[in-house]
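Query structure, 322 tokens:
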């Protein structure tokens, strides 16, 4: 097992992670390197489609059972509960007011799909196959955290209201629709569908992920530079501590469900990650007064790099110990 841990840690020096670091360095050096917005959007669509389809195909092979349903339930509970833990830590570790703390907290119950995809890529490189239905768990974990954050704000004042338009915006989020849709199509077409799309779904995946992570590195570095005045030491510390706390929640849930080593690792990754797509969009709509520079920078500029570099080896070690 120690060999596998060392291999996974060494795998973080793979091209995909190094391209992310290159993006960070380029941003800090104020280079004019950039990825066209349209290309970045196309890559995100491809990654969601590919991972959703492969997850659905895996479920088609293994079938639906009680463990799948238990995992989906565990994901929903985790997503709802984690923002409360994050909110408590924020109130202790930072000077953020209740509204901004709630807005930040919502990001830490939802998930970063790119962190999830990177985790899958690292497992595949080690020959470990997690449960395919964890793609569906990732989709389930997008929404409950948003509702928790909005409740934390609404309980104390009336600066926002949860209405039908907001719920429609949340549930119709493009990443959720594509991920679930691709998952269903993969489940319906099964192994035959995966074989047919193999040259598109499997072969170019790692290369596309490398370029996408380059763009993510650029975005993370720029966000840190642009919002550095609003980011205190306490906020940075929270961005590194909360992922570890979340991963422990995820590890407990995974062991209760009975997931494999790869599945436990991925559940920990999901619980440790922070959304920088779905939740920021919802917070901008529901809480326009909240400081977007704080929650975006924390999720993308602190927690995302932490998970990719230090977090994943730690989560894999903890998962393997059990």
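Result returned for the query:
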């Amino acid at each position: 097992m120690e060999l596998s841990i060392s291999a996974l840690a060494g795998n973080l020096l793979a091209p995909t992670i190094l391209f992310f670091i290159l993006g960070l360095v380029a941003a800090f050096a104020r280079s004019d390197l950039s990825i066209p917005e349209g290309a970045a959007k196309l890559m995100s669509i491809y990654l969601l489609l590919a991972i959703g389809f492969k997850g659905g195909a895996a479920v088609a092979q293994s079938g639906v059972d009680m463990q799948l349903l238990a995992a989906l339930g565990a994901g929903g509970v985790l997503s709802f509960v984690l923002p409360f833990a994050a909110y408590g830590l924020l109130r202790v570790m930072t000077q953020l007011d209740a509204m901004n703390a709630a807005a930040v907290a919502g990001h830490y119950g939802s998930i970063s799909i790119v962190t999830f995809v990177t985790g899958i890529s690292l497992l595949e490189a080690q020959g470990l196959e997690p449960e395919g239905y964890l793609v569906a768990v990732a989709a389930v974990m997008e929404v409950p955290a948003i509702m928790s954050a909005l409740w934390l704000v609404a309980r104390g004042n009336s600066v926002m209201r949860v209405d039908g338009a907001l719920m429609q915006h949340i549930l119709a989020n493009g990443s959720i629709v594509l991920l679930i849709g691709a998952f269903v199509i993969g489940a319906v077409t099964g192994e035959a569908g995966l074989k047919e799309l193999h040259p598109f779904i499997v072969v170019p995946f790692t290369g596309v992920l490398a370029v996408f992570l380059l763009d993510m590195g650029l975005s993370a570095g720029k966000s840190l530079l642009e919002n550095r005045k609003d980011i205190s030491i306490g906020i940075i510390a929270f961005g590194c501590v909360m992922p570890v706390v979340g991963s422990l929640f995820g590890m407990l849930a995974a062991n209760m469900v009975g997931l494999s080593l790869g599945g436990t690792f991925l559940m920990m990754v999901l619980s440790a990650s922070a959304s920088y797509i779905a939740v920021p969009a919802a917070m901008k709509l529901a809480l326009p007064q909240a400081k977007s520079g704080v929650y975006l920078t924390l999720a993308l500029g602190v927690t995302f790099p932490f998970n990719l570099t230090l977090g994943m080896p730690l989560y894999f070690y903890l998962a393997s110990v059990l």
